[in-house]
Amino acid sequence: GNGNSFQSNICSKKEWKFFFRFLIMFFSKKLQKFKNIKHCFFSRKNGFSKGDYESLNCGLGSSDKKENVLKNLEFVSKNIGCKKEFLVTLNQKHTNEVVCFRSEADIKNKLVGDAIVSKVKNIGIGILTADCASIFFYDPRNKIIGCSHAGWKGALNGIIKNTVQKFNELNSNNKDLIAIVGPCINKKNYKVKKDFFNEFINKNRENEIFFEKTNNENYTFDLRGYINSEILNLNIKNIENIEKDTFSEKDFFYSYRRSILNKEKDYGRCISVILMT
Questions:
Q1: pTM exceeds 0.85, yes or no
Q2: Nearest 5 degrees, angle CA 67-CA 71-CA 77?
Q3: In terms of Cα–Cα distance, which of 24, 22, 33, 23 is closest to 5?
């Protein structure tokens, strides 16, 4: 499925009402069936940031004005339905490290890692992206949620496998898991060189199927395809893709690669959040 975008006008507080009216959000049809799950792949629309960061930049690691990013994060927490201090994101480093929240005592913000698995209710766990994919996981049987940051490096080095492994440690069966792959850069816009191609081929010859040669030294890479194959290899069949291209849909998404191409000094980050009530 493609997921559905939706213009939200659900906030009763006057100060937020204007912003919510024009907010573009992307949802999973599979997750929308669960009353105890709130989630959203937020677009870049309708925040407080200016210039290259316009407007819902949620990346504290960017060079944006900190007060604007904090306002954006508060806006997101209100929308998802948690206190701003209960919206938890990571210090993402393209690792394969997974943070686990078994109880409220485990919860800390900005831990180093690239995935969170959580059994704790009313805590929004979030991933920041600008071409990489955010992936949501949910085990409805055991009531466990997860989110992963999957760029090429994290995906190649096992962030998806490690996230699912953490679910397994909490007695989750892969057959019960639902996986939602969010917006990310489309294959046709993900241009890479031979050394990049070699990293994947050296890991597994079969990875060749995710590349298309454009000339002697250049290829395009199918990040979404690679992520889906990693999920399927873990015997997770219940998968949904939010088929949006962060590179070409500049009105809706930040893109690291687009900002490089346009010689912009920096770029914003979109946020994706999942919460269990």
A1: yes
A2: 145
A3: 24
